[in-house]
Design goal:
Blueprint lengths: L7 E8 L5 H11 L20 H6 L6 E7 L7 E7 L7 H8 L4 E7 L6 H12 L3 E7 L8 H12 L3 E3 L1 E4 L4 E4 L7 E2 L2 E2 H13 L3 H10 L6 H13 L4 E5 L8 H10 L12 E3 L6 E3 L10 E10 L3 E10 L2 E2 L3 E4 L6 E2 L4 E4 L2 E4 L2 E2 L4 E5 L9 E3 L7 E3 L9 E7 L5 H14 L4 E5 L4 E6 L2 H15 L3 E3 L3 E2 L2 E4 L3 E9 L6 E11 L6 E5 L11 H14 L10 E9 L7 H18 L2 E15 L3 H9 L4 E8 L3 E9 L6 H8 L5 E11 L2 H10 L8
Parallel strand pairs: 1-3, 1-4, 4-5, 5-11, 6-11, 33-34
Antiparallel strand pairs: 2-3, 7-8, 9-10, 12-13, 12-24, 14-15, 14-23, 15-22, 16-21, 17-18, 17-23, 19-20, 25-27, 25-28, 25-29, 26-27, 30-35, 31-32, 32-34, 35-37, 35-38, 36-37
Helix pairs in contact: 1-9, 10-11, 12-13
Amino acid sequence: MSYSTQQIRNVALAGHPGAGKTILFEALLHAGGALTTAGTIERGTTVSDFDPIEKDRGHSIDAAIASIDHAPAGQPPVHVNLIDTPGYPDFRGPTLSALTAVETVAIVVDADTGIGHGTRRMMEYSGARRLCRLIVVNKIDHPGAKLGELLDELRRAFGPEVLPLNLPAEGGKRVADCFRQSSGTSDLGPVSDWHQKIIDQVVEINETVMDHYLDLGEGGLSGQELHDAFEQCMREGHLVPVCFVSARSGAGVMELLDVFERLLPHPGEANPPPFVKGQGDGATPLEATPDPDAHVIADVFKISNDPFVGKLGVFRVYQGTVRRDSQLFVDDGKKPFKVAHLFKLRGKDHVEIAQAIPGDIAAVAKVEELHFDAVLHDSHDEDQIHLAPMEFPRPMFGLAVTAAHKGQEQKLANALHKLAEEDPAFVVEHNMELNETVLRGLSDLHLRVMLDRLKEKYGVEVSTRPPRIAYRETISGKAEGHHRHKKQTGGAGQFGEVFLRVEPLQRGAGFEFTDEVKGGTIPGQFIPAVEKGVRQVLASGAVAGYPLQDVRVTVFDGKFHPVDSKEVAFVTAGKKAFLDAIAKARPQVLEPIVDLEVAAPEQHMGDISGGLASKRARINGTGSARGGEIVVKAQVPLSELEGYAAELKSVTAGRGRYALDFSHYEPVPPQVQQRLVDAWRPRHEED
């Protein structure tokens, strides 16, 4: 099928775990004719959960893409790119990556359990990215689902702009349109009540449409006027439509696809992507126009490494047309690569295509230079262009790993590099001082899945040590440090002397290095060496072996020798002077504090609160949820949550669940700091 940018719709399905995104993904592909039979999670036959680990665990771990070519009745055909994203917060990296490639996020809500932590998070993330948002209430045919109460909860939680486009009817066996239809009945009362609310909400955003509506009534509005006003409402956050479906039975699925096709914005209508040209403070906003004849601008939002296909880079085209045999640059690279093969994705399958136009999603294989968030372009006029980065959760859980079998060290390093390419929230660090490789992820589950992938996908087994918390170090006062490095070995010697000052910065500010040397007491060519020595301490820590942050270092004096002064001497002097200053500046160890949200049956409230109190938690509030559940919100040191999943399962008979997000760093209690300091055995360089 050939199509234009105006016929493309890009939609990501997101939301809380268990809401039914994957089954809805299958149902939409089936409704649009892309599948003859919808797959099931139980049989492991879904298009999106094709990874063996996903099949084994029964939930999504990575984002999956497929498209629908479908023509609504009496309308031109539409090409819908659908992305199914993981619901578990442990795998939020692929989910947030997918949000950079779409105009609309359809946030799926379970009719039984209602608003979850993932629902709120996805509403926040997509709102911050200025994406159009649509809420899809799934499982409407489940007995006992209180859909009227849920709609009220959604409006209380996310505002009066949350309004239904359709309503459940006949006990959830079908849905009744309340946008185009002004009469009829539903399980939530007369259609007319909601019809008037949503029409009023839509027309008030556009002055011309409002005037026509007041003069001529609803019947005087053209279909195009309503569409334009509807699209403007979604783009400006003035409307968050709600659609009701049952992905299992199919109720409302075709109607949802119809909403995608008729009402959602195409790539030329939505808020423009946040591109900038240049670096740092000199960067200026750049508007990519969906012109197929302009220079190419595309953004790589997903990388996958297949042992058979090789590296696959999935990208969204924002401007220009990518054709087979095109020559494209990666970021500011000087040498282009040739697009030998261009693909559309359908889960694990790759369908070769001739071109990808503005707004479309496509992939290229076997281009090693590709990486997540790379910008592809076909002219050096587009050098230094970047898409504003998505804010990813901080990977807080650590695990030290070594190859289980000798001779596999390089194979392990290569495999970890490939896994880190695929997930922006998975980080591989190498601690030079301890000579260990540390994996960092969003949870124990996240790290366990990565270890499973290491074994299943790359054939690498590892030995692990207990998780290491991502502590940090800082200082709480000002101080000066000094060190003279002098070494004579019979020939040319080494000499360098450094005086420096340290002071704390605001939490989260990072590191600043300032040169205030006057009179050439340290020649300018040696200042970078001093900074190098300081940065060695930043990486390895000074009191407990953890990276140092939120500190300003000012070099203000020193001495050199015209013959013996060398770079290595000032590296050592800078390092030792920095350590001297830190020891006098009241050093502190910082620990990560997380926002914890626990949901469980109400009768377990006492056990949960008591357990959290024993973990140095600050409980910020409690609330009631649907089905007799309570929700406890607290801030807790991450170090106190080791084994919490098993503990919560035990006290709630398996009915409790929790989610956490990084909040901030704060100093550990003195007794904890002393324990961490005593446990650290730094290896100091000998003079």
